[in-house]
């Protein structure tokens, strides 16, 4: 029996787990290595040059160490910048995570869509181009959040995060009124689905929240080809680049489909 393919999932922190959990659901046969570049978190606070200089060599080292069949960059702040550099430097297939503007604009009924991402993601040329190409007549509001990724990270680590702090980051997404108000919000940072219950509860009115993770999982599965019949039983690996001791293994296991974390 051949060894299961390794999928390496990379993010600045714990947000990429929202992408990983969909991939694990689609491909239980694979072996998973999750890398949180927490030594450099949050990416949203770094310049474009700093992110390219950090991510491209680091991903190269990870490929050399783990020999993945496929790498997922589960971070919008990085993917909107580094995918072409990675693809020209390494021959492994890559899947990125970019703001789901096309499906959001296609499904909005009021034609008012907000894109909630890090300050870096909403500033990117790549994001502007997605809007030019796929807004389909929608008015798109870009909302760059300075703190929401850190708040999500903190909440998942078991700390209290106040409603007020979340509302302050979320409020600018809600524009217009009556039939002309926002009806769709793109979750353009992989950390935000970690707070989805609270975002839903704290929103001033109901909207559709667009999370690209299921589409990414389908893409990964297509690229990997037919699944093996067995689930991987070897456990999964989680790597924090800070090498800080962490106590979250139990909390994080559900994202890995219950696999034991090494
Ligand atoms: N999870 C990352 C994203 O999808 C961003 C968080 C950060 O600022 O590092 O954009």
* Main sheet record: 5 strands, parallel
How many individual helices? 11
The CATH architecture term of the largest domain is 3-Layer(aba) Sandwich
| Strand count | 9
CATH T-level fold name of the largest domain = Rossmann fold
**Topology order in helix (H) and strand (E) letters:** EHEHEHEHEHHEHHEHEHEH
- Ligands present: D-glutamic acid
Oligomer description: single chain
**CA gyration radius, whole angstroms:** 18 Å
What is the CA–CA distance across the termini?
23 Å
Counting helices, strands and paired strands, the structural category is: alpha/beta
Low-confidence stretches: none
CATH class of the largest domain: Alpha Beta
- How much beta, percentage-wise? 15-25%
Shape: globular
**Helical percentage:** 40-55%
